[in-house]
Specification:
alpha/beta; UDP-N-acetylmuramoyl-L-alanine:D-glutamate ligase; nine-stranded mixed sheet; 13 strands; 37% helix; globular
């Protein structure tokens, strides 16, 4: 593809993951079965996923001048991601995420944001030309909320579509919603933002309508193994997800975002973009890790085709 650019403004956290049979109790020391260290952070995961899926990508972020920061830059180079607007901040550590994973693939995550909080509005301004060339610009809420607010307003004023992955979910200014073209909360984040208990298609649609009523262009409510609900002013549609055996759900939402933005940059319509993202995320949870679990575009297309063939045989 490599025609339209996907720009991500967001976070990098090195992921330090441990997987065990269960989560430890409070005050308990528990032995893990596996340990893995790798690049992480919602923004970073999404830009790497977009690059793997074929998009021309650029990351606007901040890392420390330490081992983890150097590892981040090396990873971006490896994935062909532009690091022209990645700032190196020597006064503080690179962001770190500690991730615990249980036998069912569920996760618990704690983050020390570090250098992510040193990204400034000036850094976004310096990336203005890069943003002008973007098909879509992605944001998350792992960093400074005021910076995210500034970035969305700036990108919207330039006429470039915006996508917000509102994680971790925190209240947004009311006048920011109309500047968001796509918002992608999972069921937990949707509940925090809307007050609606999201547990099925009906409640997901209700939450989606809440966002649209606030002015969002399209609300994408992901429901994990239950699929995805998409709501806009024009329509509401539910997209089921293929059944898989999950071993690690960490980063699935980020891979969904990266796949969805790549499809948008490739001028795919929303239903096709959602189907691609659903299948990419579903494949990712069958593997351990985050970046390491991102499937190739060939694998995703084959997975989609298998589903189509299976459906045709039933019919």
């Amino acid at each position: 593809m490599k025609d339209s650019k996907v720009v991500i403004i967001g976070s990098y956290n090195v992921g330090l993951s441990m997987k065990g049979s269960r989560f430890p109790e409070i005050g308990e020391t528990f032995t893990a079965d596996q340990f893995f260290e790798g690049p992480g952070g919602k923004g970073s995961n999404q830009v790497i996923a977009a690059s793997v899926f074929g998009a021309d990508t650029s990351f606007v972020g901040c890392v420390g001048n330490d081992k983890y920061g150097k590892d981040a830059l090396a990873a971006y180079l490896n994935y062909g991601i532009s690091t022209q607007y990645v700032k190196i901040e020597p006064s503080i550590h690179t962001g770190i995420a500690f991730i615990l994973i249980d036998q069912q693939g569920r996760n618990m995550i704690e983050i020390a944001s570090g250098a992510n909080l040193k990204l400034t509005s000036g850094d976004i301004d310096r990336a203005e030309q890069e943003i002008k060339n973007a098909a879509v610009v992605g944001f998350q809420l792992e960093g400074d909320i005021e910076l995210v607010d500034y970035g969305i307003r700036k990108v919207h004023s330039m006429g470039i579509p915006t996508l917000l992955d509102p994680a971790p979910a925190i209240p947004l200014k009311e006048d920011l919603y109309p500047l968001i073209d796509y918002i992608k909360p999972n069921e937990t984040e949707a509940k925090i933002l809307t007050g609606i208990h999201v547990e099925d298609q009906g409640s997901a649609e209700k939450a989606g309508k809440w966002f649209v009523d606030k002015g969002v262009g399209t609300a994408i409510i992901t429901l994990g193994k239950m699929g995805t609900m998409v709501v806009s002013n024009d329509y509401s549609e539910y997209f089921p997800v293929r059944k898989v055996t999950a071993v690690d759900t960490t980063g699935a939402g980020d891979i969904f975002c990266g796949a969805f933005m790549t499809a948008l940059a490739d001028e795919k319509k929303i239903p096709e973009a959602i189907e691609f993202a659903n299948h990419a995320a579903a494949l990712s949870v069958t593997r351990f890790g985050v970046v390491e679990s991102i499937p190739s575009i060939k694998e995703v297309k084959e997975f989609i085709l298998k589903g189509v063939n299976k459906k045709n045989k039933k019919n």
